[in-house]
Write a structure and sequence with these properties.
Layout (H helix, E strand, L loop, with lengths): L14 H11 L1 H14 L8 E6 L5 H7 L4 E8 L2 H10 L4 E4 L12 E7 L7 H13 L1 E12 L5 E2 L5 E2 L2 H10 L2 E9 L1 H9 L21 H16 L12 E8 L1
Parallel strand pairs: 1-2, 1-4, 2-3, 4-5
Antiparallel strand pairs: 5-9, 6-7, 8-9
Helix pairs in contact: 1-3, 2-8
Amino acid sequence: MSENALQLPEVPSDYYAHMSEIDRTHWWHRGMRTIAASFLGDRLERRGQQLLDAGCGTGGFLSWAGELGSFDSLCGVDLSADAIDFTRRVVPSADLRLAPLHDVPFEDGRFDVVVCNDVLQHVGEPELNPSLVELRRVLRPDGALVVRTNGARHGWREGSEWRAYDPAALRADLEAAGLCCERISFVNMAGSLWAAARGRSPRGPSEEHHGLPALDDSAPSQARYRVLAAEARYLAKPSRKLPYGHTLMALATRS
């Protein structure tokens, strides 16, 4: 494990089991995958592709991607051996490696699609550019990188290994790594406006707070998913973007 990896507080024994269930079924994660599909657009109509989930967590995105029919090969890297173990249960066919983003153990130009979900905000400054350069390295010349990260109108930091990005800063970091940022947008606008009205905004993990929501299959949660699905339909046109949200999503290609 990288000596600069995010140091999470001691977690309860069921932490990764709970994370796995949330990753696969929670309305927010389901909605974010729907929006990612809109960003990828007709790329998902191609067959026989190879996908890398860089920071795969407990495998929710890989499990979803495996159901699309677009990918013959599913791969993932993560810093947590426990998370990798859960991903193996969820996606037993995936090629999973324990590795940091700045040292991805796959060959040059292998992947048609690379995703990096809710990871970049935790990468320490010394590893940030090398990590994005690595993700570019493993992309095919016509491949696409999708990044999802914390968002704010004006970025800020909490400590050395947690940041909230604004669009200009995210674009600058992608371009500094030799990537061409084709589109970038805030997402989850309605939910973020509601949270802001209640005085809530993204914060880094602490000793008191792990940041995992409760499992909830209630009618309000299903309504929240439908709002995100509506955002996904709106964002299906590459020229469109949303002006506000606590999450940013970007699509970049090799320049």
